[in-house]
Amino acid sequence: MSLTAQHAEIQQQLQALKAEMSALDLWSALPPSAEALASTMPFMYDTLEFHQWLQWVLVPRLSALIDARGPLPGNCHTHALGEHEFARLAPRDCSRLLAVLQRLDHALNTGAASQH
User: Fold this and answer.
1) Which runs of consecutive H residues, i.e. helices, occur in 32-72?
2) pLDDT in tens, 76-113
3) CA angle 59, 103, 92 (to 5 degrees)
4) CA angle at residue 93 from 44 to 59, to 5 degrees?
5) What letters, b where the CB count within 10 A reaches 16 and e where it falls short, cover 2-39?
6) CA 107, 77, 41, 33 torsion: positive or negative?
7) Structure pTM?
8) What is the model's pLDDT at position 4?
9) What are the structural domain ranges in the chain?
C-alpha cells in the first residue's frame, strides 16, 4: 500500500471511529484537562478512559501525520485493548466500534509493512 493510499484509508477509518463513538455517546465536546493529557503512562490509563484516549490522543496524532503526509506508525493494537475496555460498557453494543479499531489496526500494520 502506498503512503498516500494508506493515509486515505486511515483517514476513512478515523471518520468511522468518530461516527461509531458518537453513536455510542462516547465522543465528547469537552476535552480532558491539561493535567490528564500530560500523563506519561501507556494510553494515559491513569488519567483517561480508553475512549477518551482514542478521541483526544490517537485521532489528533494520526490526523496530524496524515496532514503532514508523514509516515504512520506500524505497530498498532488498539482492537485488543478495545475488546477489554469496551466489555465494561455493556449493555452497549460496541461490536461496530471494535470492527473499526480492527480495520484501523490492520491498515496501520499492513500499510507500514508494505512500505519497506
Assistant:
1) 34-37, 50-53, 59-67
2) 999 999 999 999 988 889 999 999 999 999 999 987 44
3) 75
4) 35
5) ebeebbebbeebbebbbebbeebebbeeeebeeeeeeb
6) positive
7) 0.89
8) 84
9) 3-28+45-113
Query: Is the separation of the CB atoms in 57 and 41 below 8 Å?
Result: no
Number of residues that make up the chain: 116
**pLDDT tens digit string along 10-53?**
999 999 999 999 999 999 999 999 999 999 999 999 999 999 99
**What is the number of other CB atoms lying within 10 angstroms of the CB of residue 61?**
12
Rounded-to-integer distance, Cα 94 and Cα 32, Å = 22
CATH of 3-28+45-113, one of 1.20.1440.40, 3.50.50.60, 1.25.40.10, 3.40.50.1970: 1.20.1440.40
Using an 8 Å Cβ cutoff, are 100 and 16 in contact? yes
Cell numbers representing residue 98 in the block: 471494535
Amino acid at 26: L
